Amino acid sequence: MFSFVRSYPLPSFVLLTYAWSWLCWIPILPRISANPFESEPAVLMRFLLGGYGPSLAAVAITGLHGGKPAVRSLLGRLLQWRVERRVYATALLWSPLVVALSVAIHVALNGTLGFVYYPALLWVPVMFVVVSIFGPLGEELGWRGFALPHLLSKLNVGGASLVTGIIWTFWHAPLFWAATGTSISGAPVTAWAVGLYLVSVTASAFVFTWVYQRSQGSVLLAVLAHISLNGTGVALGFLLPELGASAGRQIWTIGVGVLVLLVAVTYPKWATHKHVVSEG
User: Fold this and answer.
1) Residue 30: how many CB atoms within 10 A of its CB?
2) Of the listed ranges 38-42, 71-75, 268-272, the one predicted with least confidence
């Protein structure tokens, strides 16, 4: 086993990540509530533990492959905060801007939003703190801390981002059939829905790669970009409580198109920049 891990660290990481998360999630899928915090405590605990699969696997495989110094290096990138202000701005604002533009296009197409619940604005900071604990911190040591640098050592920026996006997408697969967990959850699991989700996550992976490159491999900035992604969706639901499922899916579909267009337009300008963090 140890020889396999040393010879194939990335496949080992993917296998361990999927095994941990799926073994946590699959037995509890029918018992997860649409609001996971309304689930039974044991169900909620397994739901959250499954979300930490990527980060736990990254620490484990890094330790087996490089020992304590490599683990310290990986964890240290969670505190790597000396980064250009434009990278902070991109990490924090990319998702709100995409969603705001998508909502504007939805309205321009005669879509409805319902009333805006402005008091929810006071809770937005709390929402972002909550989503940072239950999501980004559980994932980003794995996706951007471990997987992406390994892929960038073998592939170009586009290839590494694409593979990361595919791995990231299908790690969520059991949650497609849960009441919550992805944009598909709670709706029919169709080829179109899964394909759109794959495009959405993979396009987001390209944005995360840009943040990774310009921050010299900071996992902290990847966590902030992930908080922006998850927190924007949660905040939208609180601010627009009457937004129906069909309207929400139209906004999401428009958002995917906007994001793909953004990546396609900007990609040639930054794809040649390559910075690979030591794998330890």
Assistant:
1) 9
2) 268-272
Q: Dihedral of CA 264/266/232/150: which sign?
A: positive
3-class secondary structure per residue, the chain: CHHHHHHCHHHHHHHHHHHHHHHHHHHHHHHCCCCHHHCCHHHHHHHHHHHCHHHHHHHHHHHHHHHHHHHHHHHHHHHCCCCCHHHHHHHHHHHHHHHHHHHHHHHHCCCCCCCCCHHHHHHHHHHHHHHHHCCHHHHHHHHHHHHHHHHHCCCCHHHHHHHHHHHHHHHCHHHHHCCCCCCCCCCCCCHHHHHHHHHHHHHHHHHHHHHHHHCCCCHHHHHHHHHHHHHHHHHHHHHCCCCCHHHHHHHHHHHHHHHHHHHHHHHHHHCCCCCCCCCC
Q: Are 265 and 104 in contact (CB under 8 A)?
A: no
Give residue 239's pLDDT band: very low, low, confident or very high (50, 70, 90). Answer: very high
Which residue, chain included where needed, has tokens 């409805």? 112
Whole-prediction pTM: 0.94
